[in-house]
Specification:
This protein has 7 helices and 8 strands; from the N terminus they run βββαβαααβαββαβα. With 249 residues, it is of the alpha/beta class. The chain has an 8-stranded mixed β-sheet with strand order 1-2-4-3-5-6-7-8, with helices on both faces.
């Protein structure tokens, strides 16, 4: 599990910001129907962000983070991974997500990501990014190698070397077609300094514009309002995310 059920994004609410939001059911090209949450600013969005959650799929942490993006002028669409195996209904806190995670494949996740990207483009959003966390961090970087025409791909504590559902990000580096931002946890128990170095090296060798940032001492899932001792790392990661999107839009 990446976040506790009572975790929340460490991003302040902007009082008075005019945003709208809605629950959606989107359809991928393979016929899969999956749940999503869309948040929009009142004005034309500066850019769009497809948000790829952690292993639990779509839940309130990502809905709240989508609203924080929208308050800052971006369209944000958070998707769920488990339409093929768990349907599109809202789930309670007791949802047993790991059997569904084990059924995911890169092909399925990327089919859904493409549908989300196309939905944002249908709203008139020209520059679309992915931003993912843990399982979704890896998926975000894989998205940059999957022909979606992304403007960039951001991953928080994603694994560069894990082969869950398809080849690793390092193995696919030569296929990546967009700038990469990796925001990694220095004290991650499962993603090592060697893994992060391998990502940096593979992207450099492939000629991919990228930045790999490691927050010394920060644990996996440090981007959490509850993790007050890592607030500085969270603030920096959020600012880097916004600057990355603005720079590449």
């Amino acid at each position: 599990m990446c976040f506790d059920l009572d975790s929340a994004p460490p991003v302040p609410h902007i009082a008075g910001a005019a945003v709208s939001h809605e629950d959606l059911v989107l359809a991928a090209a393979d016929g899969n129907r999956f749940a999503a949450f869309l948040a929009l600013p009142e004005e034309q969005p500066k850019a769009g962000v497809v948000m790829l959650p952690d292993v639990r799929g779509l839940y309130r942490f990502y809905e709240e983070l989508a609203l924080r993006f929208a308050e800052r002028g971006y369209a944000a669409l958070a998707l769920d991974y488990f339409g093929r195996t768990a349907g599109t209904a809202k789930r309670d806190d007791d949802f047993e997500y790991m059997p569904h995670v084990d059924e995911t494949t890169d092909d399925g996740v990327q089919a859904d990501t493409r549908a989300a990207v196309e939905h944002l483009r249908g709203l008139g959003v020209a520059s679309v990014f992915t931003a993912g966390f843990c399982f979704g961090g890896r998926a975000s970087w894989v998205a940059a190698a999957s022909g979606h025409g992304l403007a960039g791909a951001i991953g928080f504590y994603g694994s560069p070397t894990r082969e869950r559902g398809g080849p690793s990000v390092v193995q696919r580096a030569a296929q990546i077609e967009a700038p990469i931002l990796a925001l990694q946890a220095g004290a991650d128990q499962n993603i090592t300094a060697d893994d992060n170095a391998a990502l940096d090296r593979a992207l450099a060798e492939a000629g991919v514009e990228h930045e790999v940032v490691t927050y010394d001492g920060a644990p996996h899932s440090f981007f959490d309002r509850k993790q007050e001792e890592y607030a500085e790392a969270s603030d920096d990661a959020w600012q880097r995310t916004l600057e990355f999107v603005d720079r590449h839009s």
